[in-house]
Please model this.
Amino acid sequence: MSPLLIIALIFIGLTIIGTPLFVSVGLTTAAALFMIDIPYTLMAQTGYNSLTPFPLLTIPLFVLAGRLMEVGGMANRMISIATNLVGAYRGSMGLVTVFACMLFAALSGSGPATTAAIGSVTVPAMKREGYDVPFAAAITASAGALGSLIPPSNLLIIYGLVSETSIPRLFLAGLIPGLLVTVLLMITTYLIARRRGYGGNGAPFSWGPFLHAAWDGKWSIGAPVLILGGIYGGVFTPTEAAGVAVFYALFVGLFVYRELNLQKVIEALRFTALITGILILLTPTLAFGQLTAFYDVPAAVQESITAITQNPILVLLLIGVFYIFIGTFMESLAQVVLFTAVFLPLVTSLGVDPVMFGIFTVITCEIGFLTPPLGANLTVAARISNISIERISVAVLPFILAYIIGMVILILFPELSVMLPNWVYGPSL
Model:
């Protein structure tokens, strides 16, 4: 039996019996090191090196900033702006949810965090308007996944570190695909709500209430302008921007809206620790990724796929199918770390821009947020709506289709992702 097959069986066996993912990857890596007689110090060295990059600090800072903005009143004001902008039409509250998630995604960097922040307000509101609860939860879960695509994005930061791709370029590249997916989700929401007769009560759009809500929420809208404008304007790095975001959230929550207190700050710190604890996956997954080079896995994958086709579109479609499948039971962070090292050399050899491949990877991870049994956004939406994941899993299928359509559009028109970074920073080498 070949070593690669043994390693694969060990990993699959540990995963099936429910071993935590970082333990499964760690034990599999240890077994692989033993079989090729490499010192176990590789894991220790990789563990240290994986947690020392300065940009990694961006992740907990953005998570903390997003949580402070949520409990400090900024999320509610974003929802108010979205509500007054959309007006009272068929599916209006569902459209508000998608639009508010898009706005909050520019603050949190996390799909589950965006789902929790917006869904805790909009799901009860949709219930009151007569929405089917699984449908309301599905809207929230799918729109919350935008937090991993629209910058700043934790997954794009990890991809940038693993692939040595410019993080500001990746952030800028996520804007147009993020808006595209937002539009697709809004179309899906509207069509289903119209067919089922949800919403449509209340006052239609008028400038007065919208301008009042926009003025009341000007500090909320100022946050993404400050963060992203500062990054793209060269005022500060993404990591420094995350620190600025935390300071801004504290200032607005404490002194402007005055909805923050010591208890809420401590709760935000606790939430940040729980969310960013997943970074423990970096050590074993990066070590495992390094082992793929020893076993010539990237070369073997490249040879196998190019034997089928060398068309970049078909290759990306094949990788997309694989990513969507693997995302049903693998955490997105581990998926990015493990398989970027395997597939990136293949796609770049076919002329695919690494920045575009990063956006493509994150879109497939977003689908993973919405597929059981692991789907993180489904779990959060289930807690908010007090229904089972199984019921949401059925209701979310049309939204998964919207993400797949977005992925296919990106594959067919890769310029959508590289247009802005090439315009701002010049073509990548």
